[in-house]
Amino acid sequence: MRCFSLLSAVCAVALTGLALVEVAPARADDMVTIVIKEHRFDPAEVKITANKRVTLLVDNQDATSEEFESGEMKVEKIVGGRKQIKVMVGPLKPGRYPFFGEFHEATAQGAVIAE
pTM for the complete prediction? Predict the structure, then answer.
């Protein structure tokens, strides 16, 4: 009986401790997905938190390859047809950072906006 009471007390303390531990929520802007479809970026503009490192997941849904490129963000990567790549950017100072698809530059235009 005494063992049961001690176990109950330990469990109560543990549960109370768990309730007090604040778990940091996953931030939606830690990874941003940019879809390439019909040689266009969707969304064409993405907002991220300034001065924070962010992963861009570039999902090419077209059958042909594209080159995701940005001189301002120092990125140049090929995304195969129906493939995905991850690109780490930042931390970026507040501002606008254009990107484009070099293989379809007339339509594939976008920008990262760091705020």
Answer: 0.73
